[in-house]
Structures are given as C-alpha cells and as structure tokens.
What does this fold into?
Amino acid sequence: MRPLTEEESKAVFTKLANYIGKNLIHLIDRQDEPYCFRLHKDRVYYVSESSMRLGISVARPNLVSLGTCFGKFSKTGKFKLHVTALDYLAQYAKYKVWIKPNGEMPFLYGNHVVKAHLGRITEDTPEHQGVVVFSMKDIPLGFGVTARSTVDTRKLDPTAIIVFHQAYVSSTVIRFLYSPTPSDVGEYLRDEDTLF
Amino acid sequence: MDVSNILASHAAKYQSITVEKETPLEVDPGFLTVTDLNPIDEESYNENLEEHLQSLARDGIQALYASLFTLPTRTSPDGPLAQLPPPKTQLPRAKPLPKPKPQTKWEAFAAAKGIQHKVRDRKEWDEERQEWVNRWGRNGKNKQLEEQWITEVPLNADVDHDPRKAARDARKERVAKNEKKHAQNVARAAAANPRDARKQDIEKTLATTRISTASMGKFDKKLDGEKKIRGVKRKFDPTEKSVADEAKASVALLSRLESDSKKTRREPQAEESVLNTRKAVRFASKGRGGLALGREAAGGRSSRGGRGRGRGGKR
Amino acid sequence: MGRRAKNKQGAPEPLEKKTYSTSKKLGKRKADSDSDLDDRATTRPPKKIKDSKAKPRAPDSKPSSKAKGQNKSSVKTAKSIPKSDSDNDFGDGWEDVEGDVDVNDEFSSDEFQGITNNLDDLSEEDDEDYPLRSTTQKFDFDTDEEEEGIQPVLKGNKSKQHERPSKIIPTSSDGSDDFDYDESADEGRVTMANMEARSRALDAKAAAEAELDEEELQGAVARKDEDDDFDMDEADEENDAEPFHLPTAAEREAEKHAGGPDLQVVQRRMRECIRVLGKFKQLAEKDRSRSEYTDQLVADIASYYGYNDFLAEKLSQLFPVAEAVEFFEANEVPRPVTIRTNTLKTRRRDLAQALVNRGVNLEPIGKWTNVGLQVFESSVPIGATPEYLAGHYMLQAASSFLPVIALSPQPNERVLDMASAPGGKTTHIAALLQNTGVVFANDTNKARTKSLTANVHRLGCKNVVVCSYDGREFPKVMGGFDRVLLDAPCSGTGVISKDQSVKVNKSERDFTMLSHLQKQLILCAIDSVNPESKTGGYIVYSTCSVTVDENEAVVDYALRKRPNVKLVETGLSFGREGYTKYRGKIFNPSVSLTRRFYPHVHNMDGFYVAKFKVEKRSKAAATVEEPVTIPEKFVLGEEAAVEQVQEDVGFDSEEDRPYLEEAKRRRMKAKGLRPPPRSKPAHRA
It folds into this structure.
C-alpha cells in the first residue's frame, strides 16, 4: 500500500473527471472525514484515513482490500475504473441515464443501452461523455460512455445504441443461487477474478 | 567341365578384394575412416582425374569393408551388426585451451621471487596421539591450542585473560584475513578485463548525466526506446504521510490539470520538438512560403471540416 | 395465508412457534402438574407424539390416540389442557401466525396471555382432531398411522427439551408469540378479563417447575417411572398387537451379511426402539439391556439416513432418543431461503416492496431481527435481481444473523471478524456500524477472500479492511479491537441439510483437530480484544455445529485459560441454553448463558452462539496471586536452610529459586496476568 505518484494521480483523476467532472474535488477534500487514495497491488483504493492507518499494520502479501476499490492500473500504466466505484460515481455524477425496467436485465447481462430502453437522460449530455446508468427507481446499475449527444438521440431509431457500457453491477457478483444461463455465470466469474 | 573361362571373365569383371599398395592403407574402423598415405600417381591423375579418384576411393572402401568383416558381430532383427572397436585416430580438441587463471597477488610475488610452491598435506602428524590428524576442519590441529585441557598463562596476562578465547580469536582472524585476501584477488581478476571495466564506467557516466539536468532528470524528454536506469530505486511518498498534505497536493494537481487543458486549447501546439519547422514549411508549400500555405488552408477549410476536430481530439 | 402455510418451505415461523409452543406447553403442563402429577404425565405423552415423531408413525395410531384422548378426558379435563395447547400450535395457529406477523404484532402480547389461560377451555374433541392434523401439517407422512405406545415417550422427552424456552416465553414480547394465538385468541377473548391474573400465576408456577423438568431432562429413565401407571394398559394392548423383537447381535451380523435390511424394516424398528426406550421397564424384552436398544437405534439411524456410525452416535447422544430422530429428520429438509436487507442502501420495507413487485413472495423472518426476510417463492432468480446486484440485500441463512445480533457492534468501533468469508456476517457488522469505525475481515483462505471482497463492495461497505491471515496470528498482527466475532471453522453438523457430505466424511480425528483449532482461535480472539474498550470488549464465538466438543467444551476451555473473561447474555431471546454437563463432563455453570439452535426446533441451521466480555486484567487478581506464591517461596527457602542438615543430598531450593521464579512468571504471562517485576526476586537472591 502506498500513495499514488503524480502520474498515477493524474491518470486516476482524468478518468474520474470524465464521469463526475468538478465534483472530483468533493472526493479529495471531504468535509466529514479525511479520505485518501492508496495503491495496493495495482489497485487503487479510496479509503478513510483511519482505516488506512490501521491497514498499515497488515503485511503487504496479506492485505486483500481496504476501503473502496476504484479501479486498477494496467501493466502499461493505463487506469481502468471498476464497477466498485459506482457508489461514488453515482453520488457525484454529472450526467445520468435512466433505463426502463425492461432494459435493466439486458444491461446487467452486459449489453449496451439501446434507445428503446432509455427512460430519461440528462439534458445537454455531449457525445462520448461518461455517464452513470440508473434504473427508473434510481438504483445505480453501472456506467458507460454516450454514443450520441442528447440532441442527436432524438433522431435515432429504437435499436440504436445510446450508451456503451463500461461496467455494470453484476460484474461483482460471484455466486448465484439460481443461475440465469451458464454463459452468464461464466462471465461473472471471469470478471470477479480480475476485479480483486 | 572347364570353368576357367568363366572364372577368367568373372575375374576380369570384378576386381580383387585385396588391396595391394606400396604403403598399406591405414584403417580405423572406430571412426570408419581409411587414410591413404601413398603419393599420388601423377600420370593417372593428369590423364583422367575422375577415374583416378574413383579407383582411389574404391580401394579405400574395399579396405574398410574388409576390415569390417573381420570384426566380431552381433545378431539383430535387421541382420548382423559389426561391433566397432574404439577409434585409434587422435582428433584435435573442439574448444580452445582454457586461458590461464589470473595470478593471485602471492603467486605473482612468488613467481617474481622464484619461490617454489610446496604442497601441504591435508593431514598432519600428531606427536602426542601418534596418528595423522586433520590439519584443519573437524578435530583440526589448528584448533589444538584452544581445545587443550591446560594452558599456560603468561605472567603479565590480564585478569580476564581467556587463553581459549584468545586462541580462537587468533584463528578466526586468520580465516577472516584469508577470506579478505581471496576477495581482493577475485576483484583484481575481474578488473583485469579492460572491456568490462570500460563498459561499467560508461554506464555510470550515462546514469549521472541523465540526472544532471536542472530538474534532476524529472522533466526531461524520454528518447524513444530509452531504458530505465537500472539500480535506481523509485521513491514513493511514505504511506503514513499526512492525509491533509496529500489532499492539498491532489487539489494542486487538479487545478494544474484544468489549467493545462485550457492552455492547450488556447495555443494548440507549443512546438519545441526536434522538428525543423522552417524546412517543413518549405517542403509542404512546395517552396512558395508559409503565407501561401495559410491562404490555401483558409480557402479549403470549409470543404475539410474534419480537420479542426481531429486536432482537438489529439489534445 | 393458508396456502402459504402449506407451502413446502413452511415458513420461518415454525421454528419460533415451535419453541414457544413447547414452552407454553411446559408452562401449562407445570401448572397442571401442580394440581395433579399423574394427569400431567398422562397428558404429556400424546402431545409428544404429535410434535416430535409424527413421521414414522404406524397405521393403528389413529384409533388408539382417539381412544386415549377419550380416556383422558373422562379421567380429567385438566389433562386435556396441555394437549390442546400443542394442538393449537400446530393446527390453525400456525396459519394465522404468518398473517399476524405481516400485518401487526401488537396484539400478540395480549393474546398470548389469553392463550395460556385458555388451555382449560379446550375441549376433548380438540385432542382427537389436532394430533392428527398437526402431524399431517408438519410432515408429509401418511398420518393415518399413529402408535400410542410411542406417544408417551416422545412427549416426555420433549417436555424436557423445551424447558428452557419456557422461561423465555413469558419475558419475551416477541413476534413469535403470535403463533399460537389465533385459535386460542378466539376462545381467549371471552375469558380475557379475568384470565390475565391467572396466567401470571401459572407462569410463576411454571418457572418453579423448570428445575424439576431439568432433572427430568438429564435422565430419561427417571421419567419412565412416572409414565408407568397410566400407560400400562395401552402398552399391553400394543404389545399384543405386534410383538417387537429386538435383533440380537448375531441376527444383526446375519442381516449385515445379507446386505442390510430394507428401509421399511429399519423404519419400523426405529419406531419400536424409541417406543421401548421411552418406557423401558414395561416394554423391553426381559433379558435385553437398555444399551442394546440404543445401539440398535443408532445403527438404524446411521443406515436409514446415511450417516457414518461415528457421527450417528455422536449426534444422537446430544438428544433424547425421540428428539434425536426428529433432528435427523430435519436434516433431510432444506431450510427456508432467507435474505438480509442491506441497511446501508435501503430499508426493509422498500426492499420488500421492490421484490414483491418482481414477483417474489416474502415475509419478515420474525420479531428478533428487523432486517431479515424469508423468501417463499420467487418467479425470478433471487440471486440475480437488479436489487441483489446493486447490493440491496444479501442471501444469508437465518442462523448467521444470530452471532452478529449477539455481537451488536456500536458505531465507531473497531471490529474483527476472524473467519469472515463469504462476508454475510461482515457486511452485517458493517451495516450495524453504519460505515463508521473499521471492520477487519479476515479469512485464512485467500481464494475465499475474493468472494468476500466482492460481497463487501457490492453491499457498499466502505469501512472494511480485508486481510488474509491465519486466525491464530491475530493478536500479533493487530490487537486492541472493541469486538471480535469468531465464527469458527467447524464440522458443519448443524448444516447437514445444506451439505450432505458431512454425513460421511467426518471422523473422530476431524473432531479432535477442529476443536483443537477452535481452542487456539478463541484464545487468539480473546487476546485481540482491548479490555479497556469503553463501549465494547466483547467476543462472540459461534459455530454452525451442534456437537458439544466444538461448542461448550471450547467455551469452557477459554474460561479456564483466561481468568479475565466471563460469559454474558447473548441478547438472543430464543434458543436453548448450552449444556453445563454433558456425558460426565462438567462445564462452568455460566455456560448456560450460551445459546444453541437446532434445525428441528427453530427451523434454522444448527448453530451455537456464546458471548464473552473481556474485563480488565485487574491488578487485584494479580496481587492476590502474588502474596500466595511469593510467601510460599520464602517459607520454602527458610525451611530449606533449617533442614539443611537432613537433606544435604536433596534439591538445593535456594539455588533453584530463580528458575522456579522464572517458570512461574512464564506461566502467569501465559495466563494473561502481569507477573511481578523481576528485580524483586533478584534482590532476594
């Protein structure tokens, strides 16, 4: 566990800023309790200072995770956001997309959001903008990148893709009491292995 | 019935199985080689080279075959197999001879002074026990002093003088000294190769120069394919550094990021690269100069709308 | 609701219902017994049958029970009362219970009292009808058959078992109370006004009787005597009807060679054995010993349910014979599916609403938890709903709520979960901490920490540090915790219904190894706690096993090894008390503060929960030891000086003193006491 270097911070912040923009400052400079970013085994964790200080006692090989995992650095130094950051992204998201109930399951099974499933969308969302995907009941389901700006979506046909999904909540799921189909579970399992 | 005719014709057809030469052929069945030491018959050589060589080869092969059939055989599913004897011919060694070891300091000294090396036996005669004992190692004679049951203490010895400890320390010191000498010899031998020494020197110099700029190498441009400096440890901030400081640094970084993006938007490219701009402009405008190029671009922009965006994207 | 009750899952309520009902019975019974001992005895048997052993009943039972009921009624109305109680529980009462739970629990307390008093009102017809009904509902058996002979035995056993719960009932205002009411409530309302006072009196009597019952519990034999007089006639009848012959050792051998008896035979023999063991004096064949019957029964259980002999014996020793069979029977039935609301993300009501909209049929588990929901049926996979994926709930067995409830972590505490995968309890703790403080979730198995981490993140727990150590390293890694949860690795004899492989793959060696590990772990857990903690200083030890050597024995060991630790109330309103004596072992009396949960009683996995409080290592304790030890030594030294003449060959105690001193210091350290400063003995020397 160690603090991020400047380049690493830069990579993380630019990625986060894509979704939450200037609200990033609220993550860094919190009013309630000091929080910090820590790198451990290539994963970036967002953790309160008190937890972090206690976590220092745990030896590196034995520490599995602490706080919230935001994502990981690839070997080439690129940063990839994980769905586990969704809580914070949803809280501070600048642009949001709500999908209809019949679109929830397709999205959770890894499909992109098509126009037919689009319930609402923040106005003036530009093209290629990071957005957080919600269900109509305001449950955050995942995040992605818009394929078209809000204005452009009006003209599209119902099967056109609106949001490319990047991560969805089911990628954290490991165990299913009942499995939908074997291939899905396989996907979840694979994802889970790489997440942590 | 007279078969002599037939035999004669047969004999004419097939040559003798015995090879007669002035100097007998040397056959080494171990390597399956035959060496013909006879001088070359120049006449037949000049007359018909092919024939000459063939007859030479035939004689050699014949001799080799004859020797093979004299060898003891072993039966196998593929027929009888001759068992080759070990080869007689000495082959030259494949690898060059090892280089002599670099001399140790003592060897050099001894050679200079003409001191003979005398081999010391591993064993030593023990008068007391009347047997050969190890010179060192298990029950070594060199430990005798510290293991004897009674020791004479000099009159002027300290109160806490421990003869066993003193003897042991002395022995350990000898061992340590020898090890040190050995290490020095090894180092001296390694430095003996001037090429290696030079290489090390260059690497060291290069590493020094790379961190000898105004920013201690931090903001320098990386060359393509430039390797990381080896042996330099990355330094990270301590984990338990004040979180407040960290947050401050992050905020500063954030503001820098923002201002950077604004700056790059205002002035698209600040080129301080290795590109020779003047030359590039001359080439692109086909020698008409920068102004002409600008005019042309302004005229054509409407038709090529994608350009502006492309540049923005790069940013 | 009626439809639901018949549902396979049978509702979580049954478990509580059962306990309560039994306890009520007890209370009533006791009250009755005061007035008339004999009556009580007679009444008990029928009840027992119904509850415990409905399954393997024989066909002739129905008429016989009827007859019995009539007999009793003729003998005394008082007798009928207890029966009616039990009937209520299993009959109509149960259906309504669920309804009550859903709608409102408020009138439960009123009604409860009503119920207890109502017993008297019940008529004899109830006796006849209910037994049958109850059996049908509870088990899927063909209920037409019931043997009278068995009934008394069962009843007796049950009463013993349930004495503990009985205590719980009057005090608890649980939702569980409701189970019994509906029937009794109707009748009770009439007499409601005057009933209350009477019921209180009954409760008091019941409490007094608890001790009596306890004695009964210890020895099944003692009970037998009581039953003798009234059961005689019935027993005779039965014997005439079908003479039961216990196979001799030789016969069993032969049987084994023949490839084992068929299931029918085994089933019948088990039934008979239970019956005979219940009233051994009258029913047993003359020359056969009690142990022969027990052996036969255990062997039959092993073959019938597919256990290995060792485990079958070990488990059946835990219970009186009849209840043991019930326990084994319960292990064949899956426990209800339950989920826990993640209070970090949603509220139970909202979650229930959302799930109902998705076509899930569910209800709150019970009064004892405000986050649990039981799922009856679901048209969608309950583990793949968007709510699940978004971390609004966790699939979790009802039993694994218990240790966390017992731990009751307070905000801003530092909590350690020593064996945490797959994270159900960890996330529950984090939810109770409301994401304040910090939770250390440890698990030895690195592979399992993956799913643990995933669950922690899915449920949005932000204060959790996941690490992977051997639990025994713990005080060294980090100490000073306010609370520690040790859900120890165990044999899993409580969750056989989930993992049938336990039946055959556990041997004696496994049990010794496990309990050794558990003892090490519990000491580590105790040492990891900060005794100075202002809000905490608690340890909860739990296992999903029912055996005594993994539970009470471990707890007792910890109490002996760490003098600054004591057991406290778990804060769980139900569950049976831990054994203080078991097969010749006597544990610390405070072990009765621990709680056991059984599949056949509580309809949740077999479970054990103990809660410790770590106190400051008081100086007083240390000094008390000090004077005792050191003066002794002085005396020893002086004596040695005096007696030197005699024992110049003996030990030189003066010289040995420093070594003895050192050894003593080490021992005290190991016990967690502060040894005296070293300088003191040095001066003396």
Observations:
- The mean pLDDT of chain C is 69.
- The longest strand of chain C covers residues 607-614.
- DSSP finds 31 helices and 15 strands in chain C.
